[in-house]
Amino acid sequence: MLNFVVCDDNLNLLGRLEKMLEMIFTKNNYDASVVFKSDNADDILNYMDNHITDVVMLDINLKSNKSGLELAEEIRKRKKNPYIIFTTGHLEYAMVAYKYKTFDYLAKPITYDRLEDTIARLFEDANELTKKYIKLDNKNTLIDESEIQYIKRDGMKLVFHTSTHDFDTYSSFNKFQEKLPDTYVRCHKSYIANLNQIKNVEPVAGMITFKDGNTCDIGPKYKRDFMEVLKNYGNFE
């Protein structure tokens, strides 16, 4: 799922943007949600420091302690990956805004059709970033691959476990294996582990502990190869 954060000093426009986005998500079956909105720059930064954020919509002419451009600069110092979409009634800021790796620039008043076009292109772009997002199904469900702790086979389904949510789809390991980066390693007949999310490994007990505290087993059939990959990975002894 793509998490959207919206910032604008006009509270009426803030509410209108949220409603338009949610309508676009529903209409196009996009797996996305507006998870936070505020008219205050510091509130936006505090939220993003503690929550997964994929897309940020910022008013450039923000009447806060920071302008939208200053807020974007601070966001880029902390996080490189979120998409940034600027909104403003002042077209002269357009060229300056793109220095912050801006995905799009929406002139006010923002129309539904123009916003829908931007969101459609954003989802197309995210779908193409195979090293960043994994598409689960035909419902445009996208998961940031770096957030996945492990993948579990549960009957006919695969469960993608992150620290905040579980996503499931009817599929097989074979279908997704080629989409995954080398940091995803089969450790059990029912588990694929993300090496970047492992906190501790107990080879004797055959147990993996992930950063969020969840655990999974290391199967006897996979133990030798898994431990060899782990050894060569360099983050574990």
Largest sheet: 5 strands, parallel
- Binned, the helix content reads 25-40%
Strand elements, count? 15
Termini separation comes to: 34 Å
Task: Please state how the strands of the largest beta sheet are arranged side by side.
Answer: 2-1-3-4-5
Element layout with pairings:
Blueprint: E1 2-7, H1 11-28, E2 32-38, H2 41-50, E3 55-59, H3 68-78, E4 83-88, H4 94-97, E5 102-107, H5 112-128, E6 133-135, E7 142-144, E8 148-154, E9 157-162, E10 166-170, H6 173-177, E11 184-188, E12 191-194, E13 198-202, E14 207-210, E15 215-217, H7 220-233
Parallel strand pairs: 1-2, 1-3, 3-4, 4-5
Antiparallel strand pairs: 6-7, 8-9, 8-12, 9-10, 11-12, 13-14, 14-15
Give a quick summary of the entry:
This protein is an alpha/beta fold and 237 residues long.
Question: What would your notes on this structure say?
Answer:
- This protein is α/β, with parallel strands linked by helices.
- The chain is 33% helix and 32% strand.
- The chain has helices at residues 11-28, 41-50, 68-78, 94-97, 112-128, 173-177, 220-233; strands at residues 2-7, 32-38, 55-59, 83-88, 102-107, 133-135, 142-144, 148-154, 157-162, 166-170, 184-188, 191-194, 198-202, 207-210, 215-217.
- The two termini are 34 Å apart.
- The mean pLDDT is 87.
- Helix 2 runs parallel beside helix 3.
- The strands form four sheets. It has a five-stranded parallel sheet with strand order 2-1-3-4-5, with helices on both faces. The protein has a five-stranded antiparallel sheet with strand order 10-9-8-12-11.
- The protein contains seven helices and 15 strands.
